[in-house]
Amino acid sequence: MPRYSITTFGCQMNVHDSERMHDVLRCAGYTEAGSADEADVLVLNTCSVREKAEQKLRSEVGRLARWKRERADRVLVVAGCVAQQEGERLLKQMRAIDVVVGPDNIPELPGLLGDLAIGGLPIARTVFDLDAPRFLVASPPSPSSSPRAAPTAFVTVMKGCDERCSFCIVPHTRGPERYRPSDEIVAEIAALVAAGTREVTLLGQTVNSYRDPLGALPRAPGASADDPDESEFAALLRRVAADVPGLARLRYTSPHPRHLTPSLVLAHAELPVLPRHVHMPVQSGSDRVLRRMIRRYTRAEYVARTRALVEAVPGLTLSTDIIVGFPGETEDDFAATLSLVREVGFKGLFGFKYSRRPHTPALKLPDDVPEGVKGERLARLFEESEALLAAHLSALVGTTQEVLVEGRDKERGHGGAGGALWSGRTGRHEIAHIDGAGELDLLGEVVEVSIARANKHSLQAELTEAARAAARPRQRGGLEARPARRSLPVVAAEGG
Ligand code: SAM
């Protein structure tokens, strides 16, 4: 049986696409190789949102040319956003590549590999499925099977993007917005929950612009028929909450601030399944820059909308994405971004230096902020956000929190009964490492912990007595029999 290996670059959408490629290849009779060296087929699932990510692919392919030369039947596949962006050009530029496959063409991958195996030429397939959008679904293990489904899972609700943010290549690489019927979304989540999944993250490029293509959702409370920013996302959240009562947590990423409407705020206030954390990309705190980015909201609108959310759900925390050094960004513009970070009090932040991308409106603007200034602004931005996070984590010491245990602690996962063995996330998405629970089987459980210490980016926690009494003892060899999420080699996972 041919063996494959997948390396993933980029965002959650790519991680999810890689999981679907695993399914498609396994169904076609391939088995996963222990390492890239043992693979017959190597897939690089690429990101092109910033130039650096694209350069990474080019140097990786250069490195793999030797891997290919070692055996004539080895196959190198490039998938993802660079594949979609470059198509045939990649085959001409880098002779080591055999197959280029776009995100919408993943189901065709085994067929393309089959053609190649019987003497076909290198091929690129990068066609958007505009007429009949396909949303690939993972087949979760049956409720009785072992291992159970991972505690957390992604479920795609829409793909593509109709925004035209001037810096962003996504509309080009992922095409226009296409939505998945809510019946299908609910059925996938119900199957995952029946198989053991506790938390689902709804995925989409602008996830909260969702509309049911079959018109199957009632208008959500608080939704206005006259508001152009209104969508059916709040109605979708309400339907999932009502139809899948066993789901412990329902997250989503990445939303656009434009669609943070009163109906979505009300859903957060009324649905306990929505955790008290939202990632809401803002990009800049300067109205002048926001206009040039074509973000279609002002700083004041962003602040008002997120404030309404925090007032409706006390204790809710926000994280964000910010680009520094966008064309024309002055020191005053950047100061406005820093002041916005303080004003909103973000508890997490992905910061990026602006990177010119092909096919984007901002290409017309000179990339006039020097690299050194971009770096210095990014460092100041992180300093600000680290200080906010440190104060937030310290304030949690001594409190009791509910943690969804996602897996073994990366550092000390194989430690004995006294070691820190488990880690997971609170409802507000803080990472928590649980000390001294090595003899217990906590995978997939929502457990009560008391926070003993704040680390730089995480919390150190201990099970409360009540949680310890309620927990299952670990079966001999149980950890190996019930692995957490399949460990995909994720390279440079960045927010959104
Ligand atoms: N669709 C989401 C949105 O716009 O809110 C996120 C998509 S993008 C994959 C993730 C983040 O990368 C963006 O929020 C933005 O901060 C950053 N990004 C996108 N294009 C960029 C560029 N040309 N240069 C630097 N950062 C960029």
Give your account of this protein's structure.
33% of the residues lie in helices and 21% in strands. It is an alpha/beta fold. Strands 1, 2, 3, 4, 5, 6 and 22 form a 7-stranded parallel beta sheet that branches. Strands 15-16-17-20-19 form a 5-stranded mixed β-barrel. It has a 3-stranded parallel beta sheet with strand order 7-10-11, with helices on both faces. Helix 7 runs parallel beside helix 8 (233-243), helix 8 runs parallel beside helix 9 and helix 12 packs parallel to helix 13. The protein is globular, with a radius of gyration of 23 Å. Mean pLDDT is 91; it is low at 478-496.
**Broad structural category:** alpha/beta
The level of helicity is: 25-40%
SS summary, helix count? 15
Q: Give the strand content.
A: 15-25%
The major beta sheet can be summarized as:
7 strands, parallel
Keywords:
496 residues; alpha/beta; seven-stranded parallel beta sheet; five-stranded mixed β-barrel
Structure in a nutshell:
This protein is of the alpha/beta class and 496 residues long. It has helices at residues 12-27, 51-70, 81-86, 88-93, 109-117, 170-174, 182-194, 233-243, 262-270, 287-292, 299-312, 331-344, 371-395, 465-470, 478-481; strands at 3-9, 31-32, 41-46, 75-80, 99-101, 123-125, 152-156, 158-159, 178-179, 199-203, 249-253, 277-279, 317-324, 348-353, 400-408, 422-426, 431-435, 440-441, 446-454, 458-463, 472-473, 490-491. The longest helix is centred in the last third of the chain and has 25 residues, at 371-395.
Task: Present the secondary structure layout.
Elements: E1 3-9, H1 12-27, E2 31-32, E3 41-46, H2 51-70, E4 75-80, H3 81-86, H4 88-93, E5 99-101, H5 109-117, E6 123-125, E7 152-156, E8 158-159, H6 170-174, E9 178-179, H7 182-194, E10 199-203, H8 233-243, E11 249-253, H9 262-270, E12 277-279, H10 287-292, H11 299-312, E13 317-324, H12 331-344, E14 348-353, H13 371-395, E15 400-408, E16 422-426, E17 431-435, E18 440-441, E19 446-454, E20 458-463, H14 465-470, E21 472-473, H15 478-481, E22 490-491
Parallel strand pairs: 1-2, 1-3, 1-22, 3-4, 4-5, 5-6, 7-10, 10-11, 12-13, 13-14, 17-20
Antiparallel strand pairs: 8-9, 15-16, 15-19, 16-17, 18-21, 19-20
Helix pairs in contact: 7-8, 8-9, 9-11, 12-13
This protein binds S-adenosylmethionine (SAM).
